[in-house]
């Protein structure tokens, strides 16, 4: 008879939680770019020009220097 192997408790692998505030503000495109919307759209829009309002409504690419911070927050689900 072969000796029994000791079985230790299996450690549970926990999933990292997505930072929901960050997840709502950023989107990942099919090509891998991270896009965001501009701020200052909540109120006081009368004094802004039509051009400024139109530009704010579009999605803009996130600067490469900021991507690492965003991915850290969203942890593995947005990055890589």
Would you kindly provide a written description of the structure presented here, covering whatever features stand out?
The protein is an alpha+beta fold and about 80 residues long. The chain is built from three helices and three strands. Strand 1 and strand 2 form a beta hairpin. It has a domain at about 20-40 and about 45-75: Factor Xa Inhibitor. A three-stranded antiparallel beta sheet has the order 1-2-3. It has helices at about 20-25, 50-55, 65-75; strands spanning about 25-30, 35, 60. The model has no long low-confidence stretch (mean pLDDT about 80).
Provide keyphrases for this structure.
80 residues; alpha+beta; Factor Xa Inhibitor; three-stranded antiparallel β-sheet; 12% strand; elongated
Brief write-up:
By secondary structure, the protein is of the alpha+beta class. The chain is 31% helix and 12% strand. It has a domain at 20-39 and 47-77: Factor Xa Inhibitor (Irregular).
